[in-house]
Specification:
single chain, 166 residues, alpha+beta, 8-stranded antiparallel beta sheet, 8 strands, 30% helix
């Protein structure tokens, strides 16, 4: 991974996370458990705000909130898994945008979701709103956990990503 400036690259980071959700439907949040082992948790409801913060809906994760009580530091990995993105990049022998970005930060408080946050969730899930599982999975999301980010790194895949690094 190659470090990048969080503030100056934030818009591109947000775009990457949106593309990653479109292709993979989740990101992975790594935390440290009580045995000091890294644990990755898939999260399908992470949202990035305009100010290097974010939140996710905390309905299903159980070990992540437990781990954060002891150690609030986390790492979030978003990979653009789009087949077309990868085929084009391999054909051109270069990536035009980062294939993966990792954010470092700390989890904050769990709290009730605001109307704006619930609207963002509904907008993201609108493509599946007519499917029975949509309501089952995302119907009663009410709690979010805040995240403050402090650093960012991008994938370093040698010459394929060389032109992307400052």
């Amino acid at each position: 991974m190659h470090p990048i400036d969080l503030k100056t690259a934030w818009l591109e980071i947000r775009k990457h996370f949106n593309r990653s959700f479109t292709s993979g439907f989740h990101v992975s949040i790594a935390s440290i458990n009580s045995e000091n082992q890294a644990v990755a948790t898939p999260i399908g409801s992470l949202f990035l705000n305009a100010d290097q913060t974010g939140f996710y809906f905390e309905k299903y994760p159980s070990t992540l909130p437990e781990n954060v009580e002891r150690h609030p530091a986390i790492s979030v990995l978003a990979v653009n898994s789009g087949v077309g993105f990868w085929i084009r990049s391999l054909f051109k022998n270069r990536f035009d945008s980062y294939p993966a970005i990792r954010l470092r930060g700390e989890l904050g408080n769990s709290r009730a979701a605001t109307d704006t946050e619930l609207t963002r969730l509904k907008r993201r899930m609108r493509a599946t709103r007519f499917l029975q599982g949509n309501q089952t999975l995302w119907g009663d999301m009410s709690q979010v956990r805040e995240i403050t980010f402090s650093g960012a790194e991008v994938a370093n895949l040698g010459s394929l990503t060389q032109s992307l690094h400052p």
